[in-house]
Amino acid sequence: MNLFDLTGKTAVIIGGNSTLGGTMAEAIAAQGAQVAIVGRNMDKCEEVCARISELGGQAKSFYADATKKADLQAVLTEVLAWTGQVDILMNCPGMNSATPFFDIEMEEWDSIMDVNLKGVVLACQIFAKQMIDQGQGGSIINISSVSSGPPLSRVFTYSASKAAVNNVTQFLAREFAPHRIRVNAIIPGFFPAEQNRKILSPERIQSIIGHTPMGRFGEAKELQGAAVFLASEQASSFVTGTFLRIDGGFGAMTI
C-alpha cells in the first residue's frame, strides 16, 4: 500500500518556478504526477522542469501572470491538451514588502493583494471548476504564512493578504466538499525564499531564530512531505479546511 502514490494525476503549481514552489513540485512529480510549472519567469520554470526530468518525473512549463484570469484560463486549456485533466492545484506565488504602515501607497497594497490573494481566488475559480466538471474530486493547496495570524511586524500588507488566504481556504473547503475537492493551506515558517531574503536584516534574523524553538530556518525540502500528504487523496481523504504548520514551532511560542 502506497498512500502517497500520485500516478495518473495532474498537478498545476502556480508559482512553481519559485524556491519553495519548485521544491514542492519536485516531490509531487516524484510520486508519479505530471506537473505543470506555471510562472512568469520561463527560464526558472524550465530549470524546475529540468530538475524534475533528471529525477525521472514529468513536467512542463507554462507562462501566466497569476493576477490575470485570461492567462490562467489559457494555462488550463494548454494543460488539458497535455494531460486531459487537473487533479491538484497548488497556489504559491508570493509578494512581500517591509514598507512602514504610514508609508504604504495603495499601488503597493494593490500589487501585493493582487498576487497573494486575487491570484489564489482566480486560480480556484478556473481550476476548481474544471475539477468539478471532471467529477473525480481533487486537492487544492494554498501556501499561507506564519504572518497570517498573529501578524508579524513590518509586513502589514503581506500579513493581511495571508490572513485572507486562510479565510478563502476554509470558505472553499466548505463550498467544494460536496464535490470531493479538498482545500487546505500550508503555513510555512521562515524559509530561504527569495521574497524573505529581501527584507531580513541581521536583527530580524536573530529575532526570528529566538522565537523558533528549533532554532533555525527551514529548508525548502522540509515542505515536501506536507505537499505530498495534502495532494494525495489516499493519505488525506478526510482532511479539508486545515492549516498545516511547517514552522519549527514558531506558532507555538509566546514569551
TrEMBL record:
One GO MF term: oxidoreductase activity, acting on the CH-OH group of donors, NAD or NADP as acceptor
Biological process per Gene Ontology, one example term: carbohydrate metabolic process
Gene3D superfamilies on file: NAD(P)-binding Rossmann-like Domain
Key words, A-Z: Oxidoreductase
Keyword hit for Calcium: no
Pfam families assigned: adh_short_C2 (PF13561)
Top-rank taxon, per record: Bacteria
UniProt-listed SUPFAM superfamilies: NAD(P)-binding Rossmann-fold domains
PROSITE patterns assigned to the protein according to its UniProt record, in alphabetical order: ADH_SHORT
Family statement drawn from the similarity comment of this UniProt entry: Belongs to the short-chain dehydrogenases/reductases (SDR) family.
PANTHER family in the record: 3-OXOACYL-[ACYL-CARRIER-PROTEIN] REDUCTASE FABG, SHORT-CHAIN DEHYDROGENASES/REDUCTASES FAMILY MEMBER
Protein name: SDR family oxidoreductase
Organism of provenance: Paenibacillus psychroresistens
